[in-house]
Design brief:
This protein has seven helices and twelve strands. It has one domain: Rossmann fold (3-Layer(aba) Sandwich). The protein has helices spanning about 5-10, 40-45, 60-65, 80-85, 125-135, 175-185, 205-210, and strands at about 15-20, 25, 50-55, 70-75, 90-95, 105-110, 135-145, 150-160, 165, 170, 185-195, 200-205. The strands form two sheets. It has a seven-stranded mixed β-sheet, with helices on both faces. Strands 1, 2, 8, 9 and 10 form a five-stranded antiparallel β-sheet that branches. Helices cover about 25% and strands about 35% of the residues. The mean pLDDT is about 95.
């Protein structure tokens, strides 16, 4: 069975990728290879120190941070994504976010852009992992899925031509479900904003959560 990571890699190399679930839509993989997308600046400007870009893709955000003299590292499971990120001058590693990563507990910011809060189909588990990676005052910058009220997790697969991936779970987190999900993982919501049609938020490690555990 072909993995979703392998099909995603084909998209990064130029093939059209389709996302299949309850319907079919094109996954705009090529957009992520741009130097900057509308709305990126709201995330980048809040990264003031050591930043870990999870699901970095071709590395546009990691590279932009490094160009602005912010220490940044991209992480992606796709070897094609990591190669493209490195080719544009970004530091990047082919790793699983749930596996060992450099400088755990020392990162000041984590980026979960372009819907990457959905990684693994469990935003609470993903944010709990982010808490392990961040320092005690760290923040997570995240793209959200609109203004709905409920967290949604779908069973999806990717397709290039006749080649289809295995099925995987992916979550969509809207603004209305953000506070409950963040609190369950030990974060408070600092700010929610809209930029160029994208809903985004900053979450901070919650000291009170630490004391209550």
């Amino acid at each position: 069975m072909t993995t979703a990571t392998e099909v995603y890699g084909l998209g990064l190399l130029g093939d059209r990728v389709w996302l299949e679930g309850s319907g079919i839509s094109e996954l705009r993989v090529r957009d992520w290879s741009s130097d900057q997308l509308p709305g990126d600046r709201g995330l980048l400007d809040r990264c003031l120190g050591r930043t870990l870009d999870l699901g970095c893709g071709p590395g546009r955000l990691t590279a932009a941070l490094l160009a602005g003299h912010v220490l940044a590292l991209g992480v992606d499971v796709s070897k094609e994504a990591v190669a493209l990120a490195r080719a544009r001058g970004a530091a990047a590693l082919q790793r699983d976010v749930f596996g060992p990563l450099p400088r755990e507990g020392c990162w000041q910011h984590i980026l979960l852009a372009d819907g990457n809060i959905g990684i693994g189909g469990d935003p609470i588990r993903l944010l709990a992992r982010c808490r392990e990676l961040l320092d005690q005052t760290g923040t997570v910058l995240v793209d959200l899925q609109g203004t709905g009220a409920h967290l949604r997790t779908d069973r999806l697969r990717l397709r290039v031509g006749e080649l289809a991936s295995d099925w995987f779970h992916w979550s969509s987190l809207p603004t209305g479900a953000l506070r409950a999900v963040a609190a369950a993982a030990g974060f408070s919501v600092v700010e929610v904003w809209r930029s160029a049609g994208r809903w985004q938020a900053e979450l901070r490690v919650c000291d009170q959560w630490d004391r209550d555990q």
